[in-house]
């Protein structure tokens, strides 16, 4: 696509394409039923989910929001809705996300969600649902701090088979360096079960394409020097989203939210339907299809 095209030109072109994609998705999606639960990690936290209405047993998708993001934000809810439509018991999980933290702090939050040995963890509550069968596999996704928790999830539950993260890296401003837990080899999730997606202007991961790339390479252990994307044969790897690929032409930390401003949290943004329904490797629909290849 020509980068010189202005946003007035791009929007109608994309919207026409997306209308067809959304119509197709509506015809193929499974009917869903909402549910809510709570779990305990020092305090009580909420779980909001969707699951297929049809009878049967399903694998589980867990979504984790970012720092300051509502657990049932527009972005988190879009991810859960899409996952449930693809045949997951899907849920977004609240946690103590008012602040960021080091590996110890964020690891403690991840354990509270994914501790397979605790009856009080979020994963224990989800796996206890009548339609959930965690032996079919658990997969995870998240944004920012939630993406770190997503990557760390297998440290606490071996049933987690694959994870994706958006806005993922080891350095979040000069105050935090998470390489001791998030760099490839320092987390239990193998690099070939990760997909990392960073915007080229992600201000928290670094603010430039080169830094966003280096951070994705660090987490996944997969290097493609100077490239926009780098994927293994099984679809794991990373992608750097460019400005011209998103509707508001600004691929920042919340690139999937149309109309976002620099530094704005994703909780208040409308989710771009192109990001939800697109087939490119960086888009939600394609990423959830990739996650589904790892479950029964």
Taking all Cα atoms into account, the compactness measure Rg is 18 Å
- How many DSSP-defined strands? 13
Query: What is the helix/strand order?
Result: HEEEHEHHEHEEEHEHEEEEHH
Mean pLDDT over all positions: 89
Q: Identify low-pLDDT runs.
A: 1-27
| CATH level-3 fold name | Rossmann fold
Q: Approximately what portion of the residues adopt beta-strand conformation?
A: 15-25%
CATH class: Alpha Beta
Structural class: alpha/beta
Per DSSP, the total helix count is 9
Whole-number count of domains: 1
Biggest beta sheet attributes? 9 strands, mixed
Could you name the CATH homologous superfamily? Alpha/Beta hydrolase fold, catalytic domain
| Percent helix | 25-40%
Entry summary:
This protein has 296 residues and is α/β, with parallel strands linked by helices. The protein has helices at 7-28, 74-85, 103-114, 122-127, 145-152, 179-182, 209-220, 273-277, 284-292; strands spanning 32-40, 44-52, 60-64, 89-93, 138-143, 160-166, 171-172, 176-177, 194-199, 229-231, 237-241, 257-258, 270-271. It contains nine helices and 13 strands.
Explain the overall architecture.
- The protein is of the alpha/beta class and 296 residues long.
- Strand 7 (171-172) and strand 8 (176-177) form a beta hairpin.
- The protein has 9 helices and 13 strands.
- The strands form 3 sheets. A 9-stranded mixed beta sheet has the order 1-2-4-3-5-6-9-11-10, sandwiched between helices. A two-stranded antiparallel sheet has the order 7-8.
- Helix 3 crosses helix 5 (145-152).
- The protein starts with 6 loop residues before the first helix and ends with a helix.
- The protein has a single domain (7-292), classed as Rossmann fold (3-Layer(aba) Sandwich).
- The model is unreliable at 1-27 (pLDDT under 50).
- This is Alpha/beta hydrolase.
- InterPro entries: AB_hydrolase_fold (IPR029058).
- Residues 1-31 form the signal peptide.
